[in-house]
Amino acid sequence: MMRANKSETVATRLEDNSPTRMFAPIRVHRTFEAVVERIVDAIDAQGLRQGDRLPNESEMAKMLEISRPTLRQAFRILENSGVLQIKAGQSGGVFVAADIIPFDVVGKNIASEVMHIEEVISSRRLLEPLVYHLAAENATEQQFAQIQETIELVRHHRHDPRIVQQADGMFHRRVAHACGNQMLLSTMTTIYRQLAPLRGALRRDADRADHIIDVHTRQLEAMRRKDHAGLESILDETFIDLEEEYGVKRKFSIRWHSGE
C-alpha cells in the first residue's frame, strides 16, 4: 500500500488559528533555538516520517513571524543533525530526513551554535569600536555622505523590514570601509556576514527602524565631530540588543585614547 503524503495535512495544521497550531509566532530570546524545537515538535506530533514534506521556507517564516535568515539558521542545525533534508530547485523543498529524531545530536549542534554566536557577538564588541573610532579620524566627507545615504534608505523604507535590515548592514560596512584599515575591514566583513541571521531575530517593525535611524544618526554625528567619548556611549547602545537576545554577557570593552 502506498503511504499517503502528509504535506497537505501538515500545511493545514500549521495554518490552523487554534492555540495548538504547531508553528505559532515565536516570541522568545535565542529565536533560532525555539525554531529548532518547534520544527522537531511538529515532526513528532504529526508522526512524520522520512520523505514527508514540510511547508517551504517562505511559508514557514511567515507562520513563525521570523526572518528567513533566522529560519535558515535553524534549518542548518537540523540538516547537520540529520533531521531535515533541504532540496533546491523547482521540485525541491524541506523534507524529513529520518524516521527517528537524533535528539542528542540536535542538542550538541544547538550548543555548538550557541558557542559560535557568543564568539561572534563578543568579537564584535571588541573590534567594532576600533572601526568607528578610526572612521571618525580617517573618513572623508564623501564617505560620511555615503554613510548618511544608508540612514535615509532606512527612513524611506521604514515599513519594509527586509530593506531596513539590508540598509542597517550597509551602514556598518560603509563605516568599516571608512576606517582606513584593510585588516579590520576584512575581519569586520566576516563578522557582519555571520551577524546577518542573528539580526533577523530582532524586532522587525517600524519602531525598530526608527531606533536604527536615531542611533545611526547620533553615531554619524559623533564621528563627524570626532567626539570619541560620545561615540563610545552610543556604540554601547548598539551592542545591547543582540547581547540580550542571545544571552551574551559583556566580558570586555575598549576605550579610545587620543595619545595627547
TrEMBL record:
Q: Which domain of life is it from?
A: Bacteria
Gene3D superfamilies xref list: GntR ligand-binding domain-like, Winged helix-like DNA-binding domain superfamily/Winged helix DNA-binding domain
Q: What are the record keywords, sorted?
A: DNA-binding, Transcription, Transcription regulation
**Signal peptide limits:** none
Instruction: Cite the SMART domains for this sequence.
Output: FCD, HTH_GNTR
Per UniProt, what is one Pfam family of this protein? FCD
Instruction: Extract the InterPro entries matched here.
Output: GntR_C, TF_FadR/GntR_C, Tscrpt_reg_HTH_GntR, WH-like_DNA-bd_sf, WH_DNA-bd_sf
What are the HTH gntR-type domain coordinates in residue numbering?
29-99
Q: Name one GO molecular function term.
A: DNA binding
Give yes or no: UniProt keyword Transcription regulation: yes
PANTHER family for the chain = TRANSCRIPTIONAL REGULATOR, GNTR FAMILY, UXU OPERON TRANSCRIPTIONAL REGULATOR
Q: What is this protein called?
A: FadR family transcriptional regulator
Which organism is the protein's source?
Aliirhizobium smilacinae
